[in-house]
Amino acid sequence: MQTVLDGRYAADRSVVALGMFDGVHIGHQVLLKKGRALADRQGVPLVACTFMDHPLQLIAPDKCPPMLTTFDERVRLMESLGVDVFYAMPFDRSVMDMPPEDYVGHLVRQFHPTDVVCGYNHTFGKNGGGTPALLAALGDALGFSTAVVPKITLKGQEVSSTAIRGWLRQGDVARARALLGRPYLRQAAVAARRGGRWELFMTPNGKQDVPRGNYRALCSDGEHTWPVLLRVEREGRALCSLPVGTTLHDELEIRFLTSLSVDS
Fold this sequence. Notes:
Elements: E1 2-4, E2 14-18, H1 26-42, E3 46-51, H2 56-59, H3 71-80, E4 85-89, H4 93-96, H5 100-111, E5 113-119, H6 132-142, E6 145-149, E7 153-154, E8 157-158, H7 161-170, H8 173-180, E9 184-194, E10 197-202, E11 213-220, E12 225-232, E13 237-240, E14 251-262
Parallel strand pairs: 1-4, 2-3, 2-5, 3-4, 5-6
Antiparallel strand pairs: 7-8, 9-10, 9-14, 10-13, 11-12, 11-14, 12-13
Helix pairs in contact: 5-6, 7-8
């Protein structure tokens, strides 16, 4: 997969998937698989077009939510889903103030899409004025087809990044896991061994925290993976027990499986 951060990419033909893709949850996966199928049918690359940072960081920083995936995680997940080009542009004032029609015109000039895929609630352009209906109308005029992925639900609940953040805030990592399609991941720095347990500190990388409590999780150092009981404390501190004789590197990946108890 090619990752483009400087805007220096152009395609003669392509299929373009639009979205922020925070979490790359099962709804995003449906959208990207639709894009992959269209790209294979047309014999063209699949371009995932997104932003480096959440637009709310510029529009309303106090309302910008914590992220579910770091940028590097998004890159890895996109590659695993068959994306050919991960095109991430900075969200700056020129993009923020761009009329929806101009935004789509830019996509057409750069990617020459045969098809554009988006979610049913995707918005684009100044003040979020662009809608899937407008995208379809512009596609009719500019020569591309528009595929709109409907609302995706799981057991009656809409799959969304907002819903996943809500479950994580409550400590319900199992429900978050179901909507993500995989365990929620946090990176942690290894601090020290305290008696029979290791002291860890969650990496402060802008991701959604889970509340204090006890969790079943998987810890991995890149070479080994251990099932653990994890105690999450205040300010990102966590404690876990690992087999006697375990030697840890400086960092671990923690994948949350289920919650055993959440502190009130």
